[in-house]
Amino acid sequence: MSTTPAPADPALNTSQTSVSPAETLTPLEQEVLDEYARLLGNLNNMSTILAELSVNPSAEILDALRGLERKTSLVFTLLKASVYSIVLQQQIFGEEGADGGSVSREHS
């Protein structure tokens, strides 16, 4: 596979670079280079958008995060209550079993 010299300006498309006749590219090579150029453009766009979002978070994102925070804290509270309920039930059943004459282990 032959290579072309890197263009001086990275924003140039591969089809805009001058190639000597001895260094012509196959259609597949040119297609791959064009895809890389499109990928570079897309990554640059995404980088710009992410930089803007990191500097100025949108109100929608902040509102969504606040809602998510509320839901997460609610789930955490419900989980703690469930665990407490399970532990309490185990203690009650353990005491009933001990009162019924069965041998129980002492918890330290």
UniProtKB/TrEMBL annotation:
Polar residues bias (residue ranges): 12-23
Localization (cell): Chromosome, Centromere, Kinetochore; Cytoplasm, Cytoskeleton, Spindle; Nucleus
Single GO term (MF): microtubule plus-end binding
Pfam families in UniProt: DASH_Dad3
InterPro entries: DASH_Dad3
Region: Disordered, residue numbers: 1-24
Coiled-coil ranges (or none): none
GO biological process terms on file: attachment of spindle microtubules to kinetochore; cell division
GO cellular component: DASH complex; microtubule; mitotic spindle
Keywords: Cell cycle, Cell division, Centromere, Chromosome, Chromosome partition, Cytoplasm, Cytoskeleton, Kinetochore, Microtubule, Mitosis, Nucleus
Similarity annotation: Belongs to the DASH complex DAD3 family.
UniProt cross-references to PANTHER family, sorted A to Z: DASH COMPLEX SUBUNIT DAD3
Name of the molecule in the record: DASH complex subunit DAD3
Organism expressing this protein natively: Glonium stellatum
